Amino acid sequence: MSEHLSAGRYCVLCPRGGAGITALFGSLGVSFGRGSNSTKSTQQRIDGLIKSASTVSPSTAKETNHGVGDDRLVDTGGQLGVGSWNSSPHTWHFGHASAAVVHFGLFEVVGGIHRVQPSVFYDEGENVFCVFQGYLSNLEELIDRYFEISPDSRSSSPTAVVMPKKTPGEKAAELVYTMFQQVDDPLVLLSELQGQYAFALVDGDRKQVFAARDSSGKENLYFEIDEDGGLTISNERLRVNSSDGIGLVAWEELLPGHYLSGKPVKVHQFALTPAQLTEREYNDALDDAWDDGDPSYHSKRSVSDGTEDAVPVSL
C-alpha cells in the first residue's frame, strides 16, 4: 500500500446515500451520500489525501470546478515544452458529497516524449468527471463515429476538429463519457474500446459511477464497496480513511476484463482475464490435438481436480 498520493495517482470518493437514481444503462449507477455529515466526511478524506502528497502542502492544493487547464504547468519554456512542474493535487466536487482528487504527474511514454498522467475530462455544465489512464488504439475511429462533425470540417482529422489541443488521454476520457451517454448497454460500450486502459466516470447529476479495466491488466484499478454501499476507486492502494472515519479503505483489485456498475454497485465481467485466456488457449490446443489424432497427447489425471486432462508427453 502506498502511503502517499504520489504523482500519477487519483482517488474517487462516492459515499452512499438514501436517495434513488435516474436510470442509465438500465440499473447502472451508484446513489451518492447526502447531507452535511457526508460532505464533511468526504472533505476530511480529501484533506488526508492531499496531506499525504509528499511534495505539496494542503494550502497549495487547487480546487477545480472546471476542466483541467494550464495550471498543471508552472513554466512551459523547457525542453519539449515542459518546465517546472506544478505538483499540487487537484480536486473536483460533484455534489451529494462525491468528489475526486488527482495528483497529475509527467511521465515519459516513449523516446523522450512526455505525457501528463492520468488524463481528466470534466464538463461543468453536465457535472461529469472521467479520469482515464492508458491508451485506445482505435481512438480516432471511435471519435469519428460518436461525435457530430460539421460537413465543412470533414477534410481535417476528426480528432483534431472535435478535440483541438487535447492529449490522446484527454480525448479518450471525453470519448468514454460521450459513449456513456449514447450507448444503452455497457457491454457494447466496452466491446468497442481497443487498447490498454482503466477509467472511472462519475455523473454527478445522475448520481452514477461507471469504472472499467481492460483485459490486459496493464493499468491498475482498485476499489472498495463499504457496508453502506459507498464506493471508493483509485489506481493505487492508497492510505485513505474509510467513509465512516473508522479505519482505512480495504482495497480490492478490479480484475482485468471487469467493470463496476449497478445499484447496489457490483463487479461485472466483460472479457477474459489473462489467466482465463491462457487456460482457454491451452484447452483449445488440447482439443485440436485430440481431434487431429495426435499420438503425442495422452490422458493424465489432474492432481488438482481429479479430472482427465490431455497433456503433451515425450515419447
UniProtKB/TrEMBL annotation:
Output the PANTHER family linked to this UniProt entry: ALUMINUM INDUCED PROTEIN WITH YGL AND LRDR MOTIFS
Source taxon at top rank? Eukaryota
Q: Where is this region: Disordered?
A: 286-315
Q: Which residues form the DUF3700 domain?
A: 126-244
Q: Which InterPro entries match?
A: DUF3700 (IPR024286), Ntn_hydrolases_N (IPR029055), TSJT1-like (IPR044828)
Q: What is the lineage of its organism?
A: Eukaryota, Viridiplantae, Chlorophyta, core chlorophytes, Trebouxiophyceae
According to UniProt, the name of this protein is DUF3700 domain-containing protein
